[in-house]
From TrEMBL, chains A, B:
Keywords (A to Z) from UniProt: Methyltransferase, S-adenosyl-L-methionine, Transferase
InterPro entries in alphabetical order: TrmO-like_N, YaeB-like, YaeB-like_sf, YaeB_N_sf
Species, as recorded: Mangrovicoccus algicola
PROSITE patterns in the cross-refs: TSAA_2
GO biological process, one term: methylation
Family stated for the protein in its record: Belongs to the tRNA methyltransferase O family.
Protein name: SAM-dependent methyltransferase
Pfam assignment, any one: TrmO_N
Keyword DNA repair: no
Example of a GO MF term: methyltransferase activity
Signal peptide segment: none
Length: 162, 162
């Protein structure tokens, strides 16, 4: 983790990693073809590659999959453990200039949670495994939550299809 | 926090709250009209009430809002600190029977993160405050992340409008 900043970037007045107020427990891990050097920068790019991925849940979580179905869309929340947490404003390589951390999907954020909307392509419930159409996360990224994606909740009103 | 379970519910073989592997730092707090007794059960219901809400960021985070605009949709991730974490299968009051935790948007989950898609209705960037069209969270729920909502990422391919 680098402690240098680029021109236009702004540090928070503290490192959020030094002010922990709640704790996460990993429920499983992403298995993907991606490593730090070649990981798609977002889920749209990841879908374009056509490369699937999977989630391996830890022992005990298989029953938590009941009710999910192949073909269904889910929200995968991961933990980007290597990402720095102390930038309020950053200059991503692909962006035109500095932007606030909350206006970006960059992994660099006070709580480095990732959020990817995926389709379930297969399930082995008893083994606690499920296939994903795509993922924009390195192999072995910890997973902290799965939620069903619901159009009535997860599309803002004015952008709803139809 | 109750330690009883309903018929059809299944406990995890451990409490995830006892196996903490990563830490969250709160970036701000929800201010809403809702308390435990009257909180809308999801964001769709919250929108129907027509009651707005706001986020008050902690000092230091104002610069992280740069680039967000009034009218834009954002994803608000909150921390549901009172929720139990040890159910693999649960029977929510409104559901017909037991379902896996990962098939539900219930606050009861191994990592009680909430996810709400909201529209920004006003911003006071310097004060670190922004208005939301609606929220399905109690007053003073801690906020752990804000992300821009992006149709190309946050709608699964087959359900994309058009």
């Amino acid at each position: 983790m680098s402690d240098t900043i680029r021109p236009g970037e702004t540090l928070l007045p503290f490192d959020p990693g030094d002010r922990i107020e709640a704790g996460l427990s990993f429920v499983g891990v992403i298995r993907s073809d991606w490593s730090r050097g070649d990981c798609p920068r977002n889920i749209a790019r990841a879908r374009e590659t056509g490369r699937p991925a999977r989630i391996e849940l830890r022992p005990g979580y298989a029953a938590a999959l009941e009710g999910l179905e192949t073909g269904q869309a889910i929200i995968v929340i991961g933990w980007l453990h290597g990402a720095r947490r102390d930038l309020a404003r950053q200059v991503p390589r692909h962006a035109g200039g500095p932007r606030g951390t909350f206006a970006l999907r960059s992994p660099v954020r006070p709580n480095p949670l990732s959020l990817s909307v995926c389709r379930i392509t297969w399930m082995e419930r008893a083994a606690g495994q499920l296939g994903l159409d795509a993922i924009d996360l390195f192999d072995r990224t910890p997973v902290v939550d799965l939620k069903p994606w619901l159009p009535g909740a997860d599309i803002p009103p004015e952008a709803h299809p139809g």
